[in-house]
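User: quick one - fold this with NAP bound?
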Amino acid sequence: MRVAVIGAGRIGSVVVRSLVRCGYSEIVATGRRDETLKNAASLGAEATRDNDYAVSSSDIVFLTVKPHHLPEVVKSVKPASWAGRTVVSFIAGARLATLEKAMAEAEVYRAMPNLNAEVGLSSTAVAQGTRTRDMATVDRLLKCMGRVYWVPEEFLDAWTALAGSGPAFIAEIIDALVLAGVLVGLPRDLAYSAALDVLEGTSRLLRESGTHPFKLRDDVTTPAGTTIRGLIAMESEGVKAALMKAVESAYRRSLEIGAEIDARVKRELGISD
Ligand SMILES: NC(=O)c1ccc[n+]([C@@H]2O[C@H](COP(=O)([O-])OP(=O)(O)OC[C@H]3O[C@@H](n4cnc5c(N)ncnc54)[C@H](OP(=O)(O)O)[C@@H]3O)[C@@H](O)[C@H]2O)c1
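Assistant: Sure. Structure tokens for the protein plus NAP:
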């Protein structure tokens, strides 16, 4: 099977690396700048500026360009070249209905991975279009980047807020914990390792034991002990509400951006509803 990655930038490079790690060797990746092409070639892909060649010579196509580059990419590929191709779009905001009109006769999916794909731990949500046939192949390829969740398309904005922006929110929490460790006397490196360990270990414990977070919290909290003092501080500072509002704000922005992007793509490609 040959795979095309259209736009070998940040996430496109991660796709190439993940597929290579998974044992796929027939990969062609595109970009415009020499630097992009050189990087794609160094990762093991055939590198080219020719999107039409990449699409027409492949079975599966990952679209990993920025949203405003989508119309230009679509125009750079002959309409006939999309026929029979399986296209997985990572492009935020571009809706399945629009993608299916733009790439008539392609089998189109829309997916939202996150940056944790860099270490094979993406949480990728994927939605199928109306012409989808080969979900198993798409599932297999996306699993090279991490966990895969099949969802209805209308979940993707919420997913973008929670799992797409999530690594940034978690990074902020880790940074705060590190500063807290330093505040109470730990060397920075040690505090950093402890924060990462606690996050990783707690995630794993919750996942593997099936324990509810409330139960884990109560198990750690002894009467009049240290944890309850920390918890009352978190409660009075509104930590939970702040995190909920962060995800909700990101969700609303994702809806706004999605509407703008989709309208722009339709306008530039002359697609009507
Ligand atoms: N980064 C993430 O964590 C992440 C996560 C989920 C989804 N996404 C989605 O993935 C997409 C890409 O994001 P990114 O952060 O990877 O952006 P990026 O680093 O800017 O990569 C985009 C790449 O597309 C290439 N490109 C632009 N126009 C092209 C064209 N006409 N033909 C061929 N290649 C072209 C660019 O190549 P040149 O530089 O050579 O022009 C660039 O390398 C976005 O739509 C974003 O919503 C990203």
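One thing worth noting: The two ends are 34 Å apart (CA to CA).
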